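Hey all, sorry for the wall of text incoming. These are the three entities for the joint prediction.
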Amino acid sequence: MLKAPQTRDPFAGDGFAGAVVEWFVETGRHDLPWRQTADPYAILVSEIMLQQTQVATVLERGYFTRWLERFPDPAALAAAAEPEVLKCWEGLGYYNRARNLQKAARALIEEHGGSFPGELDKIRALPGVGRYTAGAIASIAFGRAAAVVDGNVVRVFARLFDFREAVDTPAAQKRFWEWAERLVPENRPREYNAGLMELGQRVCLRTSPACLACPVADWCAATDPAALPIKNGGPKTVFVTERVLFAVRDGRLLLERESGSRRRGLWKLPALPEDFAGEAPPVMLETKYSITHHRVDLIVQGWAGDPTGLSAGPNPVESEGELAWFDLQTEVPAIAMPSPYRRAVETILARQKA
DNA sequence: GATGCGTGGTC
DNA sequence: TGACCAAGCAT
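and here's what came out:
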């Protein structure tokens, strides 16, 4: 990697922040829908959606715009029924984000009289809002000089300060926050924070950083930027098999609602017991999906036409949650299902139609 | 402080 | 193609 040596100190004066701000003002993505608004609620929605989720996913699949059309303000979201809230979130994952967003809307109504607080600690107290999100809202929506540290900032800082230790430790995170607090400027913190993150997203790339195009290369101490940041990594992938039932009766599909988990309130194909071998319904579909550090082999079993096997003998369903039948035409499309099950159902239905 | 959480994209 | 990752948070 070709990269000029460091010649300037990020902490000396406001040159570093000024360079980030200038770069953002001149070349930033000002067309993003959440940059077309000054509404703190809309900024909150965007920041929650963007947690651990790529810009392209939120943007191209229309989640942000659709959400604001359906829930244009905290009052609309606070008054909504949770199933509809989850349905609007379907496919984004981390469904507690949607539930917390509604809790936050209710807190805005009930504890703040419907007006959005501009103080960092009050923003931070909203459900689902952690240190990053609070800083992002305070700076972007209110112009406060609050720091942000996300995955992009970690990568930029690891290189800027040539940080050759693991970044995914509490001690390292503490240092990144200290650096962020020291560097965030009183002048134009909105453009600085947005620019710092966008720099990580578009220039300070993970595997091939574009140092020749970087506006802060003069301040960067890294000699081998592509080797940073260093991570310990998470747990190893666990491979599991999941057998579920596809049962249709009178045009209605049997689904199970998860109860205790964080996918609570979402509907899935009911689980079949592991040892359900002898009289098991035939395999209709086998597919794979990943969830956190699990790699799941999803096997859908059932009777395409005549589900007599379902009513014969004991209930073949191993269920921890509530079971219910949903009309395939009208109800199944309207309820919230995790993506793997949604895809499986649609694949099977399309196959039967053909 | 470690762990669990959803999904889609990337190389 | 499998491991890694992306605008983190709550418990």
